[in-house]
Structure formats: structure tokens, C-alpha cells
Amino acid sequence: MLKKIYIAKYHGFCMGVKRAIQIVEDTTKRAEDPVTILNEIVHNEVVVEKFRKVGVEQATSIDDIYAGTLIIPAHGVAPDIKEQARKKGLRVVDATCPLVSRIYTIIEKIVNKGYHVIHIGDPNHDETRGIVGHASKHITVVANKEELQELPEWKDRKLGLTVQTTAHIGELEDIEKIAKQKWPGIEIYNTICNATSERQLAVLELAPKVDLMLVVGSSTSANSKRLARIAASSCGKGFLINSAHDIKTEWFGEDTKAEYVGLSAGASTPDFLVESVIKRLLEISGGKAEVIRPSEELASNKMSE
Ligand code: SF4
């Protein structure tokens, strides 16, 4: 029987997501012409759908936008996209998260000094595409530490290394070790954002102390998927759920012994989705479970009734 629901100390909307949503709301209030977001403003279907319902258009390519205002999403874009938009006469409103822009600044600065950049990130993610566009071809993208290990020796190159804002904090140490061993002079920049670090650390603190971890987030969200993987490996049992509808009652059956549940949410997950998950968990417990927020209230080493 489900007894306690522990909410992770840091979860849900981050600064960059709140800021991007506010920018879309302000822009649509003021705009007299069509407003189009390039790709998803943030990687959450509920947020994307909310804007679609109030008439904000969404396009996957600049070629499909002919007039009005273009909003650049929180994950940013390559500079040539903004240039193309301006040439087409579009008004450009930039909702790129400042912590993504920080990576652009680092990369542009070191590329101008003659460095080649190694960036560790998902090559198919919007953030990575934007970053590649800021490096004027002086960049190599690898998806993980295994691919990093396979890169050439590049004895004649000055090298800098950056990572995706939502990378796994636990892997950064390995990445640094491999990079320093291969290229002792490499300059390493920790570009994982604060929101990612805080949410991952909160899950690492909570997950070992509960029977089941649930992470609320979209399957299109890199930070939610990573959080769910960390939660599952650290707890032993964990799932990424889009909403309360994905909760399976068999997770709480007599034989599963899921008495203590930990709950977190990705940086693009609205609070109301987390609250609806809590409501559903309370229903499953027959209204008996206690909700504990935040997780600082955890007993230091063991959860007791
Ligand atoms: S997860 Fe980090 S980089 Fe992405 S929008 Fe939030 S604060 Fe910005």
C-alpha cells in the first residue's frame, strides 16, 4: 500500500522555460500579425498545445513562415536562421535561454582564438544544431564519452570542450578524464545548466530512499528523459510519465511493495501536471498517503512511517 509521496527538492519549470513562455505570452498579446514559433517553444506537448489553441502557429522550417513574427525557442537556433528570417521581413523575437546563449558566447570566443570545439550532445537535438551553427564549422559533435574516446589525437590543434546543457552531471568527471588524457592542453567548459544540475542532484538524493521513482515529463524532453534514467538506475525502479494517465495501478499492488514513491519533473513540465500526478497517487492510496514536500524533510538514511 502506498504510504508516502516524496517530492524532489528541485523539479519542474526552470528559469529558461518560464522566461520563454512569458516571451510568447507577451508577444502574442502585443502582436497584430501572425506569431509563429520555430519548432517547439519548450519540449512539452501540453505547453505547445496551449499556445496552438490560442492561435500561435508552429513551423518546423523557416521556409514555411511567410509573414509576421517569428519566435526563436528556448533551445535556440543557428545564426543563419535568424538572418534568413530577417531577410524575409519577419520580426524576430528571441526566447533562447541565456544559459544556451552562454555556450554560443564561449564557442564564438574560442573559435575566434583559433580553437576547435568538441561538443558532447545529442546531434539531433535543437540545442546542438544551434550550437553547431555558432561554431563556423570549427566543431565536432560526439554523443557520448565512448565517441569522445574514438576521436583522433589532433596533436596540432588547440581544443575546447563544451557539453549539452542537459548532460548527465555524473558523466562529466569521466568526460574530463578522457579529454585530459587524450589532449592534455584541452580547455573544458562545464556548460551543464544550473537547473539540470539541481534536478539531477535532487533525484540522486531521493531515489535511493524510495521504492519507486516517477518523473513527469515529455518523451521529447532531453532533460526529462535523462532525469528518468538517473531516477530508474538510482532507485532500481522508475518511469517517465507524461501525465497522471500513464500511472499503472499494478505498480502499487500487494506484491510490488511500492510504499514510498519519489516524484520529480523535467524542466519543461508545468506544475499542474505534477499536481495531477499527486492527486492520482492519493486516489490510488485511498486518500491515505502522506505528501511530503520538499525532500529536505527526508529522514537522513531511512524512511520510517
Ligand atoms: S534546462 Fe537549462 S538551458 Fe534549458 S531552458 Fe532550462 S535553464 Fe535553460
Estimated helix fraction: 25-40%
The average pLDDT is: 93
Tell me the name of the CATH homologous superfamily of the largest domain. Answer: 4-hydroxy-3-methylbut-2-enyl diphosphate reductase, catalytic domain
N-to-C SSE series? Answer: EHEHEEHEHEHEHEHEHEHEEHE
Strand content: 15-25%
Main sheet? 5 strands, parallel
CA distance, first residue to last residue: 12 Å
For the record, the CATH architecture of the largest domain stands as: 3-Layer(aba) Sandwich
| Bound ligands | iron/sulfur cluster
Radius of gyration: 21 Å
Q: State the low-pLDDT regions, or none.
A: 297-305
Strand order of the largest sheet: 11-10-12-1-13
What CATH calls the topology of the largest domain is: Cobalt-precorrin-4 Transmethylase, domain 1
Topology, number of strands: 13
Class from helix and strand fractions: alpha/beta
CATH class assignment of the largest domain: Alpha Beta
- What is the domain total for the residues? 3
How many helix segments?
Answer: 10
Which terms summarize this structure?
Rossmann fold, Cobalt-precorrin-4 Transmethylase, domain 1, four-stranded parallel sheet, disordered C terminus, 305 residues, single chain, alpha/beta, 17% strand, binds iron/sulfur cluster, 13 strands
Describe this structure in a few short sentences.
With 305 residues, the chain is an alpha/beta fold. It has helices at residues 15-30, 45-53, 79-87, 98-112, 126-133, 145-149, 169-182, 194-206, 222-235, 271-284, and strands at residues 4-7, 35-38, 57-59, 69-72, 91-94, 116-120, 139-142, 159-163, 187-188, 212-216, 238-241, 260-265, 290-292. The chain has 3 domains: 4-13 and 194-297, Cobalt-precorrin-4 Transmethylase, domain 1; 15-97, 3-Layer(aba) Sandwich (Rossmann fold); 99-188, Cobalt-precorrin-4 Transmethylase, domain 1.
